[in-house]
């Protein structure tokens, strides 16, 4: 958080610290968003209105592809945002990477920061089983 107010003093002359700015987050996705690959574009058009209504931090969906057409917890690669031709196309349900990047730029231009929901622990949409290395951790 940042504060732009200067320190003041109370009635007794003691210095008071300025109140920090409070930020408001809003979920900017949902189950019923149309699967038309234009959500990033819709949000880009709405971002100036967010700031005008004191929404500082829209929380956006994991922008990656999913295993099935229905958006459930089966993300393929949480760091891929619609830049690779896989699973029948480049775009994700939400749009392509270029639209996402432009959304973030547009948001920053008006003082809005985007929260990306990475969902790193929900990767059940692989095409096949793979070998991986693990490190056993003491549960205590």
Topology:
Elements: E1 8-9, E2 15-16, E3 25-27, H1 39-52, E4 57-60, H2 97-109, E5 115-116
Parallel strand pairs: 3-4, 4-5
Antiparallel strand pairs: 1-2
What does this structure look like?
Strand 3 (25-27), helix 1 (39-52) and strand 4 (57-60) form a beta-alpha-beta unit. With 140 residues, this protein is of the alpha/beta class. Helices cover 19% and strands 9% of the residues. The chain starts with 7 loop residues before the first strand and ends in a 24-residue tail after the last strand. The strands form two sheets. Strands 3-4-5 form a three-stranded parallel beta sheet, with no helix packed on it. The protein has a two-stranded antiparallel sheet with strand order 1-2. The radius of gyration is 21 Å and the shape is flat. Residues 69-79 have low confidence and may be disordered.
Question: What Rg, in angstroms, do the CA atoms define?
Answer: 21 Å
Note the gap between the termini. Answer: 35 Å
Number of helices: 2
Uncertain spans, ≥5 residues at pLDDT below 50? Answer: 69-79
Describe the sheet with the most strands.
Answer: 3 strands, parallel
Q: Would you count the extended β strands for me? A: 5
Shape: flat
Task: Estimate the mean pLDDT confidence.
Answer: 76
Specify the structural class: alpha/beta
How much helix, percentage-wise, in residues? 10-25%
Elements, N to C (H/E): EEEHEHE
